[in-house]
Amino acid sequence: MSANINATPLGSRLFYWVGFALIATLAWRALVPAHEWPSPNVTYMTMLFDAGMLAGLVGSYAKGRFEGAGAHALFWLGLLSGIGLFIIRMTSSPAWSSGHIVNTLS
Length: 106
Description:
Oligomer: single chain
Number of helices: 4
Helix content: 55-70%
């Protein structure tokens, strides 16, 4: 059996997926209004998931040897997006529960 030398390691793929996921999640929560109130358990679970993705991004970046401006830009955009997800929650009480900037609920 021969090993595929050109295979992308799991850490590299994880880095790119988590970076794009954090950026997409921030865009979703910033642009789309919340339409329902999640339970407190779901609120804390999504915050834990966001923190886990942020830790995974930093950990995979620290262990990997990523070259080029694209990987570094993705890291910084992902890091700022992950921090932005928690900043959104600090803006108001409805944002704390839903994670979205705009709420259509009364």
